[in-house]
Amino acid sequence: MKKWLLPLLGTVLLLSGCSKWIDRGESITAVGSSALQPLVETVAEEYQTKNPGKFVNVQGGGSGTGLSQVQSGAVEIGNSDVFAEEKNGIDAAALKDHKVAVVGITPIANKKVGVTDLSLENLRKVFLGEITNWQELGGADQDIVILNRATGSGTRATFEKWVLDGQTAVRAQEQDSSGMVRQIVADTPGAISYTAFSYVTDDVQPLSVDGIKPTDENVTDNQWKIWAYEHMYTKGEPTELSKEFLEYIQSEEVQERIVPQLGYIPISHMKVERDWQGNIIE
């Protein structure tokens, strides 16, 4: 054999061995809600560190994408801010719901608009296009620039359900990513949008509604009504790695340490419970 072939052969054998080692690993994919994505990514990284050879691939795309992909069998877990029953085209009976947290959702504005509190009625009028200048709300003489999450977003569905009473927001620029929404609002004069508490930073102004501040405490007793469960759906009962990972993210260790650390609310901290139609369960 020619000498120059020996290193090449060694490389091929090494790669072949690595491939077989990788094949022996287990992997699952969780797709969907961008509001839930930071939590699932953080927990997945910790889980993988503790369990070498087990991989959890986490992607965004919105709640609608997560529900449709888990229903079709394209992924093992579909992450969603809304109940499966709320999405057209989704067979909720075929999916198993695993609630892993609660997320508060707040309207956010550019810090220079001069407004920190809105009535629910005026907030609704802003997103329906009936109020178009911050001056009408006691703020700066500045046109209101609305930024919506994309159609299919669970964050948008929750906001429209509780703020717009199920109506659709006025046509405006849309963004798929919660992080991008925050950045655009911070950089755009007169901008307003909405995002999960976990995405709020000092770059934007969260808005109180009817004098009630968007805080975890106000969510737990339903004073702040713009909130949603964070769901991780499987097609039927989870098995193997999916089951192990879901048990880990629902464990007391994760719920009491990582969940609040990232700006979410543990399910166990809630003083009320809602069904998929938004009714309080006694």
UniProtKB/TrEMBL annotation:
The highest taxon in the source lineage is: Bacteria
Recorded hits in Pfam families, A to Z, give: PBP_like_2
In Gene Ontology terms, what is a biological process of this protein? phosphate ion transport
Keyword annotations: ATP-binding, Cell membrane, Lipoprotein, Membrane, Nucleotide-binding, Palmitate, Phosphate transport, Signal, Transport
GO annotations of cellular component type: plasma membrane
Asked whether the keyword ATP-binding is assigned, the reply is: yes
This protein is called what? Phosphate-binding protein
Q: What species does this protein belong to?
A: Enterococcus florum
Q: Which gene encodes it?
A: pstS2
